[in-house]
Records
---
Amino acid sequence: MTMKRLLVLSLGCWLLAGCAPKIGSLERIAVVPRPSSVAAGEGEFRLEPCTPLYFRAADSLSCAAAAFDELAHALFGASLPVMQGDSLRAGTVGLLRVDSLREDAYCLTVEPDRVMIAAGGDRGAFYAVQTLRQLISATCFSKKAIGGATGGVSIPAVRIDDAPTMPYRGLMLDVARHFFTVEEVKRTLDLMALHKLNVFHWHLTDDQGWRIEIRKYPKLTEIGSVRRRTLIGHDPGGEYDETCRYDETPHGGYYTQAEIREVVDYAARRCITVIPEVEFPGHAVAALASYPWLGCTGEQYEVRQTWDIDDRVFCVGRDSTFDFIEGVLDEVLELFPSPLIHIGGDECPDKMWACCPHCRERMRREGLTSERQLQGYATTRVERYLAARGRRLMGWDELLDGGVSPTAVVMSWRGSEGGIRAARRGNPVVMAPTTHCYLDYYQTADTTSEPLAWGGCLPLEQVYALDPYEGLNARERANVLGVQANLWTEYIADFAQAQYMLLPRLAAVAERGWCPAGNDYADFRRRLRHLTGYYDALGYRRASHGTED
């Protein structure tokens, strides 16, 4: 009997037997993000070190197979025996591609005598393995227990049919303000995989540091990757004066191109696309400190040490500036296969342009009537460069202020208004508003008990209340690609604090991207308490806000 016929028979018997949820079973079946459909069954499957894993080589479910292998190593310290073919005996786990399912959809069936994962493609099968992980007791994954479950682990009988609603479910990590090592970035990708997030937005350049090796322009990392000191004591929104406190230790770091490729490959094996962000035309001081001719005045600057918006931006009146950014992007495109390339575009003052003869001449030649239109010109020029190479431009919602083509992808951060405006005019949109998605904000109103953060309060319940479709009709909603959590690191100096700010709020963003319809915060908290056990077992640092009984 073929695996596909076995699948049909297995699911048919399941439905005939009846799948009324049992309270005890559902308490154990606590998956985040919430699956589309869950039906608890009777009994459990015993996964043991000798349990065979069956799959067909032609199905090409390599990411899922690797994820299952990692799961087995964590539990048993070794791989499961692997068998290929169309037959599936009792006491086995099967991976099967099914053409009738979407590529990122899956059906996970756990019965007392077998586990079956049917998926439309590698992504769906990978997500099924992440769900299966959450059905196993978290204690089995603790550092003390790694590889020690030689007697096997139990998985409750269940059928889960599932697929994400939104194609874009992202996390942005700012490594420009504070640098994180390759291993810390990989740990972040592991965390994303657990939450079924599929886009890692890597903020690689800013005023305070340039973090990507560009061989054509070596000074970007020789000079631009290191700042002399770092602001550590400051009231966000207040003045930068003599009351500010600094860490006088130089802060630096960057990723070699070999390390970039290593991270991109690591992410791909977890079904995660890496989108690089190279800021243009604002947030440019690290680049200007490296190559002063990129600015309007040609002055020699230092890499910025404070966090406010800087007037010193790229000169868009000189063609040499565009030669530079295209030279940078030539190497970026070789490193990142992502169809989307993020150029920032936010918080770009036009003060220097107003005084620059080159920018004034650019305005005259292009028939522009305001300095703000220069940003639209610069963005459109870079967008044409990317389009000619088969890529698509992405940027923050300030792109709309200078004029942008309907093909640019807009990331809405100043609330949801920019995203609503972009969706209504036909632009693809990712919702990442400060009101729900800025995880560098305090988690409670009692800031005295929290590490220094950017300001504002964003508790777990407010993150979960995100409605990415708010204010949009059905036609406009089709332009919303998804949601994204943002972690800016001005006041996040190490990876332990980064984890604390992400967890558990990242789970709320992940769920709103996976299943934005419905809003059952009480049920989310029930399932989240189960997930926090995995955070603890896997050694992640987390906040307890919103997870207490």
---
Amino acid sequence: MSKKNIVLFDGQPLTIEAICQIARQQHFAVLSCKPDFVERIDKGARFIDTLLKEEGFVYGVTTGYGESCTVSIPLNLVEQLPRQLYTFHGCGLGKHFDAEQTRAILAVRLTSLARGYSGVRYRLLQQLTKLLEQDILPMIPQEGSVGASGDLTPLSYVAAVLAGEREVFFEGQRIATQEVFARLDIQALILKPKEGLAIMNGTAAMTGIACLAYQRAEYLSQLTTRITSLASVALNGNAYHFDEKLFSVKPHPGQNRVAERLRSDLQLQQSAPRNDTRLQDRYSLRCAPHIIGVLEDSLPWLRQFIETELNSANDNPIIDAENEHVLHGGHFYGGHIAFAMDALKTAVANLADLMDRQMAQLMDTHFNQGLPANLSGATGEQALLSHGFKALQIAVSAWTAEALKLTMPASVFSRSTECHNQDKVSMGTIAARDCIRILELTEQVAVAVLLAVVQGVELRGNLETLSPALQNTVKDLRVYSPFLKADRALEAELRQCLELTSKQHWDLYNTSYPCDAPK
């Protein structure tokens, strides 16, 4: 294993990209075995043991949880409490997180526990790392978390699997954890006091999903920009809407990045003679930098919110073994992730809406500057029968509507739960799941509109005059989806192009600003 393709968990801060690389199995998780790191982790667990012997009282160790914190647990029952915690939280429903999402969740929880403030053993971190190393993925239901007191129910499935219980996804099969552990000679962990709470009482589910959502949105912003460039060509748009001087007077950095990319794609030079025969294009072309730019300008603070949460100790209580303090608080509250995901999903849905409007222009002979109706490529008698992209536009409209419908902020729907102990909760996991769904729908819109704009560009002709970047996009797409000369079912092509998009296949922009993920 090369040092270049590992992510080291040693208590130091990690990036969104590191979590995504683990999730996609591009990099491998490695737990530090340096003596000082091992000692720092184990010191917290020893401090808990000392407190039990000397004082006999620690929240979540010798007490019940949440509202039940006033219930004192006899010392002879303390060891049963962690198992009780993950057992009664085994009530999740809905679809399960997929493999990428589950790896991200495991990596995020490992990052937080490696900070050394959770009172767990190094042995627990080893067991968590082993799940990632062997790709033993807990079957985690997506539904059942309100995002304060952490992602208790989703993370109970992680705790249970560490202890050899419930089910995992392994080598393409859903299988009992105990069977996998026996096959690989992995010893199930008996969770010590505080360890069940430390695993579950955090924001790992919402934060892992947020890392994946961030990177998908970042790429989708660039793909929407490339689609806009092609739409401008297909519609004989006025490229001077993206003039450098024009954008210098409204200097939002992200918005200006988008305009710069459009200028590059459209080969707009400041010294070139102006051709303003189309004085003002419709907003879905003219205002594209302003719409895409909202997402681009949100990326820096979204990164700050997500990475700060990622690199935090976010369970309760916090164990300061160095100074021998037990600190009771609410770091499990996922408010920052909830707000970030609610904001991100709105910015992404606006991309779907933008591309939907561009598609509408391309299809309509009243607005498409002389292109055939519905972008049909049929000729002769077949032209009478051909409907081109008519049905695809309807699908794009449906996907866009569904994306827009989901933009209602989840974070404002706090519920009082658990005997009013959790009387204000974040809803961060629901917001993150909403964001993923909106990303899925917007990627579907993007792939469909990519097919349409490339068809429009080819119908317009003069491909040799396009910039190299646009020519490459046209050629690349045509490998997977030929010119639509006669009507055909497009589902298979759409699905293949969607899969390519999820892998960030399309070669877009060479960027170096801080928000771009390393390739």
---
Amino acid sequence: MTTHLLEPVTFGELPLRIEDVLALANRQAPTRLQDDAGYRQRIAKGAQFLDSLLDKEGVIYGVTTGYGDSCVVAVPLQHVEALPRHLYTFHGCGLGKLLDAQATRAVLAARLQSLCHGVSGVRVELLERLHAFLEHDILPLIPEEGSVGASGDLTPLSYVAATLSGEREVLFRGERRLAADVHRELGWTPLVLRPKEALALMNGTAVMTGLACLAFARADYLLQLATRITALNVVALQGNPEHFDERLFAAKPHPGQMQVAAWLRKDLAIDAPTAPLHRLQDRYSLRCAPHVLGVLADSLNWLRSFIEIELNSANDNPIIDAEAERVLHGGHFYGGHIAFAMDSLKNLVANVADLLDRQLALLVDERYNHGLPSNLSGAPADRAMINHGFKAVQIGTSAWTAEALKNTMPASVFSRSTECHNQDKVSMGTIAARDAIRVLELTEQVAAATLLAANQGVWLRAQVTDARPLPPALAAMHIELAKDFPPVIEDRALEGELRLCLQRIAAQHWRLHA
């Protein structure tokens, strides 16, 4: 049973934030659909206007014409009712892994929010059923591959349109079920989509936007975690905390960079007496950490802007202006802003992986770790020769970092002309968003490994009789980590602990800086 922790998220005229989508994706907030008479009337007016045009035999793309390059093909009125089903049927060709439950909820939320603008020509009943899918956690099984990100996420969103119509499969109460069976169990009649409704559901950017909301939230937490890991590594490596002096950063005042430096000062209690320095200037992965992490910190505001504007936009085609009685044909399905945001995010995040990987390399190497044992092994001297501590963890971290860096190739520059050269310039926004999620997964693995190694390094330092006490924030983190991750004294397989650490990261378990 879901426990709702937050206030209801309302779909309607008011904008949503990334945090709202995240709350819905994690089943932490209930939902409601705006239902005042004025709003319902405004939504209904769009569908009524379309019906009036059909009565006059007006030409409307995707309603009285074929789709895409087939827009020049007239559809006789006797076939208009059949066209929506054909649209979601022939797009049922997605491949690859299925979106997970969290991502699917984010997609449903993004699509519903777009249609709630009232300029897509859909009925109130469609909004209610889409909202009911979210409310009852009925999740269409959506293959993640097959979208080029212009004409929107047609193929993946066809699975939403089809399941609303009682076709294909859904995840319901933990089981893979036929959508028709779930409708029957709940006493619902599957929707018969009206002219324009399948197009309104499918011809938009909901998949890339839903994924972008999740990616943003993960990156925001990763920024804070990487800062905390850096602080632990400064202690473990007996680095120079004066590299983060407030006056130093006043001379180069990028706000995010200054914020990361401030977090490090707080974590390290920089005003307290420091241990003797091994080096006047630490190596770059410590000294320049605010400069690396600060780029991500400074980018989050504009990334939020791109994502939230897209989230709160009408992004299908055509736009139905019932008030002015106009049908506006355009290209709002083009996901260029999300594509650029996600291509940028994966670059920013991969740089975090590279930073932490370099810090781990210093930790495990006797030449650079200022007196810590090789590979951070905690074994006593008489067993040191057969123990290897974090040796393999570093090898794994090198692999994860390399893969993250490899995946930073921008997807948005790989536009392909497709669909008989009608879609001759496309965004690749969904591929970019999927890439960003993958880079985040890999970087979180790097963060988990480096966190456990940093904690081991801090523990090893504490074994020295004249060791200085940890600053309060780091002491609290060290104690909390020790509950789940005891010191590595005799070699043990660390996979289980790494996976537990990843679960903690996914749940944003540790309260950090924000």
---
Amino acid sequence: MQIELSNKPRPLNQYPLYWAECFGTAPFLPMSRAEMDQLGWDSCDVIIVTGDAYVDHPSFGMAIVGRLLEAQGFRVGIIAQPDWQSADPFRALGKPNLFFGVTAGNMDSMINRYTADRKVRSDDAYTPGDIGGKRPDRCSIVYAQRCREAYRDVPIVLGGIEASLRRIAHYDYWQDKVRRSILADSKADLLLFGNAERALVEVAHRLAAGEVIGDITDVRGSAFFVDDLPADWSVIDSTNVDKPGRVEQPLNPYQIIDESVCPEDPDTDTAPNAEVKLAGKLAKVQQKLSKRLKTVVRLPAFDQVKRDPVLYAHASRVLHLETNPGNARALVQNQGGRKVWYNPPAIPLSTEEMDYVFGFDYARVPHPAYGDARIPAYEMIRFSINIMRGCFGGCTFCSITEHEGRIIQNRSQESILREIELIRDRVPGFTGVISDLGGPTANMYRIACRSKAIETACRRPSCVFPGICENLNTDHSALIELYRAARDVDGVKKILISSGLRYDLAVESPAYVEELVTHHVGGYLKIAPEHTETGPLSKMMKPGMGSYDRFKALFDRFSRKAGKEQYLIPYFIAAHPGTTDEDMMQLALWLKRNGFRADQVQNFYPSPMATATAMYHSGKNPLKRVRRDSESVAIPKGEKQRRLHKAFLRYHDPANWPMLRDALKRMGREDLIGNGKHQLIPTHQPRGTKPYHSPRRKNSDRGRLRKGRILTQHTGLPPRD
């Protein structure tokens, strides 16, 4: 087997068009044979099977990849939310000429269907009518199996966020165990992780040219099965990168350690120095990067990480060290007898390529087959615009790094302004208000490392933790200019910013904060400190409250200057790894001092492959080297403790007072029980108090929909007397 990787990809718009481009652009990608007949198609080249309703909008994955393939000349059909009880619905559009593309949709299907308390949701924001239960658990696996039943010889390509987050052996919160790679469970032919436009276009053209899918092994951002490792590659063991220990001693203290974990002759390869400077060392860095293109890191096998949580934390750490496309090495992991090979992540899209992807002729509405049915996820984003991708924050509970990457990919200002005009002219119900100009993070637009060479060699998981990197350019002027140009578009009355704001970056540009507060806040601005205490914040890789205080001072000053009464609404996470009962008590006291009363609260949700999930499962901190005696992390796991942590966030609810009184007495903090101004809860319980039940949480929270994370939501208003 030969695998040759490149750092110089072909631009997306420079492929020769497939012959079927003569059919032109469809008003909607067809979901039925009748629609195919109207378009003059006898077959589809690619069929996308998705767990979401088909909305032809660039915030929906199936629309982006469908329109992208259409622009390459392929005929693309959509099978959205099929009945998975038989293979018949998967035959609705006939046999695809090239492949089935299978995705769970914009969210991991288990996060979509279950709460953080593992209870089934009754709703689904990506389904017409907000109806739950329209997709199976782990639907990528089920859909792939049904596609195989429908047409056994058609290649199956997995993609989307569920595939990205489950591409290696991963801890599954709902089963409380480590599962195999989703590629092994689904028996698909190829897995594409990340946004995957670059990989998808290359795979489609090569299959169309007659290549066999099993021979396509050199596409970045792909994973596939291999029988043997390539002879011309250097193979190093992950334990040479990071020496793991064990949670417990082996049952047999004289047991020989498996050579696949600790080889007899370990390679001495080391990672490029993250602090390398351009002066005098660039040639050495480039030499190491060239070597890494032909190096594969062998992760501990599935059977090993399944039985040993410390090896799991070690594997998670190594994976996250290999996420920078500039220096990431390939990975390989044995999945119960078969090896899965993971190529390095795809090279990020250029601004021209981002404009190309977002510039297709999207209908910008749901498919007509849904009639007047309301799709909440669409209602939330139909007047919003995605201006960039990626996030270099590296928050451990968030899934952006594993899916979109840490390098910011920007659209041009011209492309964004054209989309505003399209919304104004085409989207029903537009009243002149753009609900968001953002992305994973609102204020990372055109922010990047000062040096491409340093960015390429960097191994840091975050550019802003524990502090802002000296090599990061924090200039917000391009974003300020974009905001001003957007406000000047004819027909636009208001531009709101609803995406999460990285306030520790924003305070580096007071001019940006003034622009934001003066023109783009609709009374409330949501930001996410996540916690107030150092312990959990260090495990989240979030800044301390000093940054929040600096931002709040600017926010209040510029609000007064603009003559506006506006409020900050902070989000917090309960029961995150590293959080003690004392931490939650201190957070509750902070909330009371600052006059916040949480309306809806949510515990930490262990999403697949997140660093915080590795902490949750292993009790170790993979932000540092994972060893036998390395740092242990406090994990609020039991139902009783997780309920208590939620109760601290809702300290003002009488239904929580009995639980909080017991906890405060146990903690030796009875001084906080009483009716004084500085006490947390009163001494006496009101008559007829009912047990507290969390309000029904809709699936429309932007943070959870886009990032796979859930935050608490606050009223932001002072408590009533």
